[in-house]
């Protein structure tokens, strides 16, 4: 899987990428190597908010193998157009290690055979379709969750994405290891309590939980690579 994030700073660029939410789909229809793909917007603040961020957009896609992914991500016209218009972009090439649930009715990620967990950062992706009856309850929880994840010293990177504001929500975060991620997700804090409420009150009409290891990254975000151990200048 690949996730490419793009930051558009000028008004013309933001209007252009808004139009791409429809136009770019034609490019993917002509790209036989791509499997599952989604064009997404983002949230403001820590990212996990109902207010859209008009500056940040993303393309998520699955590929038959890493070599094909690298080739298409660097040469396909749709990715080149987005990068040319963006003030900044960052792409991650990922391998799924676990996945359960569905996204738009399909299972988009096929994990590798189970084995010894690879060292290094762990990527967590959660995607959900909210039931209309749970909108208010869900979004009341979000400020507490967003504040906690923003202050967590272990989180390396986090962003909230979405296909449709308020309805289809994606959380994407990177953690130093599985233990740090699990401590945040399952602890007795706002996130842990929200997960319990999801199970008890059936907040989601559809949900997907997936974990990945990082194969490669390129580009910058905020003027640097988020995975760099060096402080920004």
Summarize the topology.
Blueprint: E1 2-7, H1 11-29, E2 37-43, E3 52-61, H2 66-75, H3 77-85, E4 88-101, E5 122-130, H4 135-151, E6 157-164, E7 168-175, H5 178-186, H6 190-201, E8 204-219
Antiparallel strand pairs: 1-3, 1-4, 2-3, 2-6, 4-8, 5-7, 5-8, 6-7
Structure write-up:
By secondary structure, the chain is of the alpha+beta class. The chain has one domain (2-219): Alpha-Beta Plaits. It is 33% helix and 33% strand. It has helices spanning 11-29, 66-75, 77-85, 135-151, 178-186, 190-201; strands at 2-7, 37-43, 52-61, 88-101, 122-130, 157-164, 168-175, 204-219. Strands 1-3-2-6-7-5-8-4 form an 8-stranded antiparallel barrel, surrounded by 4 helices. A hairpin with an 8-residue loop joins strand 2 and strand 3. Helix 1 runs antiparallel to helix 3. It is globular and about 45 Å long. The chain starts with a strand and ends in a 14-residue tail after the last strand. The mean pLDDT is 83.
The count of domains is 1
Q: Pick out the low-confidence regions.
A: none
CATH class: Alpha Beta
Q: State the CATH architecture.
A: 2-Layer Sandwich
Order of helices and strands: EHEEHHEEHEEHHE
Biggest beta sheet attributes: 8 strands, antiparallel, barrel
Mean pLDDT: 83
Q: Helical residue percent?
A: 25-40%
- Major sheet strand order: 1-3-2-6-7-5-8-4
Strand content: 25-35%
CATH topology: Alpha-Beta Plaits
N- and C-termini, Cα separation: 31 Å
């Amino acid at each position: 899987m690949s996730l490419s994030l793009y930051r558009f700073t000028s008004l013309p660029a933001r209007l252009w990428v808004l139009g791409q939410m429809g136009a770019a789909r034609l490019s993917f229809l002509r790209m036989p190597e791509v499997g599952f793909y989604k064009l997404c917007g983002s949230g403001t603040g820590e990212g996990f908010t109902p207010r859209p961020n008009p500056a940040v957009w993303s393309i998520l896609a699955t590929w038959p193998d890493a070599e094909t992914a690298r080739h298409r991500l660097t040469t396909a016209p749709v990715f080149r157009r987005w990068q040319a218009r963006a003030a900044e972009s960052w792409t991650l090439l990922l391998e799924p290690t676990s996945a359960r649930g569905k996204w738009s009715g399909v299972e988009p990620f096929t994990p590798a055979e189970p084995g010894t967990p690879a060292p290094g950062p762990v990527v967590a992706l959660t995607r959900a379709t909210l039931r209309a009856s749970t909108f208010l309850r869900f979004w009341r929880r979000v400020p507490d969750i967003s504040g906690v994840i923003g202050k967590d010293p272990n989180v390396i990177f986090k962003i909230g994405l979405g296909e449709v504001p308020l309805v289809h929500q994606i959380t994407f975060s990177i953690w130093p290891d599985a233990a740090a991620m699990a401590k945040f997700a399952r602890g007795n804090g706002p996130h842990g309590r929200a997960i319990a409420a999801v199970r008890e009150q059936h907040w989601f009409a559809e949900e997907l939980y997936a974990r990945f290891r990082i194969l490669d990254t390129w580009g910058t975000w905020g003027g640097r690579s988020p995975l760099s151990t060096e402080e920004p200048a």
